[in-house]
Amino acid sequence: MSERETAGAPAAAEPNAGIGAAQRETGFEPFLKKHPILHMAGALLALTAFVAFLLGLIHTQTAPVIARLQAETLEAAVSGVVPGTASFQPLQADSWPKLVKSVRECRDETGALLGFAVETAPSGFGGTISLLVGVDPEGVVTGVSILDMKETPNLGTKTDDPSFLSRFVGKSVGFKLGPGAGDVQAISGATVSSTAVAGGVAAGIAAALQITQGEGTVG
Questions:
Q1: Model confidence over 95-133: pLDDT tens digits?
Q2: Closest by alpha carbon to 142, among 119, 163, 120, 170?
Q3: What is the reported pTM?
Q4: Which of 216, 133, 145, 127 is CA-nearest to residue 173?
Q5: Which residues contact 99 (CB under 8 A, 6 or more apart)?
Q6: Exposed / middle / buried, residue 95 (Cβ in 10 Å: 0-12, 13-18, 19+)
């Protein structure tokens, strides 16, 4: 066959020619090409499911660690406001004094009652202040700790200073916030925050006295 004949002859069809194109026209691909929003929605749904799976896995792995750390933090806080505490358990009552969120009975290694760790929630200048107040069975404050606050930096936050919180130790029902002898002196420039902390401490004393009068029960 001559070069001219070869050049003029129609090209032989390649085996399986056109099959790929036919295959590309089957299934959902043509449909998705015509509806790109659905394609994007499907991809987003798959990504969301994957992220949800990862978050669930992370939660499963970290939840026990977080719970343990929270328990250790609480134990340290309770021991800090009721010195000598070896064990504690929550108490229940039909109602607690205003501002009181929870009460824990604290005992030493021999099982003797040391007092109570009372969590209170007074309202400060920047929001709720979470306090833990230690009170002995006679209603005398043994320690105060601030668990959480959102007060003004360098003003209201000064109420978290041990030099201020220690002013409440040894106080009992009827104590006052003021400049007089025996009073608890407020933080200068943070009267609202100081008053809130004092109110939380007073509520802790009231809860402890309620328990010692037989109204609180072990829960």
A1: 999 999 999 999 999 999 999 999 999 999 999 999 999
A2: 170
A3: 0.69
A4: 133
A5: 120, 121, 122, 199, 200, 203
A6: exposed
